[in-house]
Specification:
This protein is α+β, with helices and mostly antiparallel strands. Strand 4 and strand 5 form a beta hairpin. It is globular, with a radius of gyration of 16 Å.
């Protein structure tokens, strides 16, 4: 059995050419988030609140606990792992977003795979966010990631 010296994390980063308040709000408001990530959210993110996110095409949902919100700076959620979103303004019209996912559990090989999958998934989310906020284009990246896994409606 392999042991890990340091617990792996998933990490994705992207420059979004929009003001920090707009980028932050895109993750807070499910009406916006559903344009680039999940298909439906039960409510806006609020500290101490639990919301549900649905990916209807996959028949999947997640119960998400909002741990901490620092407006226009940081979001921390319990998504089964701890996910931290950091928003760093680069100018009045540019925001650098960093998403870090940690707290994976299991055997060493499984934990490494989860961290890699998380990095891939959050990179797709950030690419979709960038297309939506900068160009008003809905790329359907999450929808098209695994079309073989879609459920019949």
């Amino acid at each position: 059995m392999a042991t890990l010296r340091h617990a792996p994390v998933g990490k994705a980063e992207m420059l979004i050419r929009r003001p920090v308040s707009e980028v932050y709000e895109a993750f807070i408001d499910p009406a916006i988030t559903s344009k680039f990530w999940f298909t439906k959210g039960s409510g806006s993110l609020e500290a101490g609140k639990r919301v549900q996110w649905d990916w209807e095409m996959y028949g999947a949902s997640a119960s998400v606990e909002v741990i901490e919100l620092e407006p226009n700076k940081r979001i921390v959620i319990d998504f089964g792992t701890f996910v931290e979103f950091n928003f760093a303004p680069q100018s009045e019209t540019e925001t650098f977003v960093t998403i870090t996912d940690s707290g994976f559990q299991g055997e060493a090989d499984e934990v490494v795979k989860m961290a890699i999958d998380s990095t891939e998934g959050f990179t797709i989310v950030l690419c979709g966010l960038k297309a939506w906020l900068e160009h008003n284009i809905r790329l359907n990246l999450v929808l098209d990631k695994a079309p073989y896994a879609h459920i019949e409606r």
